Amino acid sequence: MQKGRTGAPDCNIYLIGFMGSGKSTIARCFAREYGMTLVEMDQRIEEEEGRTISRIFAESGEEYFRELETKLLARLGEKKGQVISCGGGAAMREKNVEEMRRGGKIVFLRTRPETIYERVKNSHNRPLLEGNMNVEYIRQLMEKRRPKYEAAAQITVDTDEKSISGICGEILRLL
Ligand code: S3P
Predict the structure, then answer these.
(1) 22 lines ligand 1 (CB under 6 A)
(2) pTM here?
(3) Does domain 12-174 bear CATH number 3.40.50.300?
(4) CA–CA gap between residue 4 and residue 65 (Å, rounded)
């Protein structure tokens, strides 16, 4: 892949993976190190809707939220040089994956359910895990989603027990 003057990729990087797999952290690292524009999909949707993800799910339902994700991905595809931290469910729609492929490279951050649980256990901003906060539930949902994450990704990186800068470096080498 072509790299820019700073070593940054000249297309978009889409980080996909389960909730708590480190997409936001790795995206921030990329943005800082390689001068890419950081896009946090959940945050962008919250700003545009003027309400939290939890409220969107509660008031308008999951399908409404999924439509917002699809529309946002289509808009993001019009620009380059962005590192995009995708919501954990964004790669479940084929249409979204096609959009990501058109816009750049898709990187799957693969993480064990136990690690995910440790990272998300005290958070309350993920409606799908509210009332389901345990390793078994996380494992089941992850197994259900895994084929789609793996089929979508051009690059897969195992993140357990690795440093943030190590993961960023690994992704850049693989791009
Ligand atoms: C979701 C993941 C969340 C957020 C929403 C749904 C999912 O994003 O988009 O709660 O379906 O996995 P993060 O992966 O950034 O937590």
Answers:
(1) no
(2) 0.95
(3) yes
(4) 34
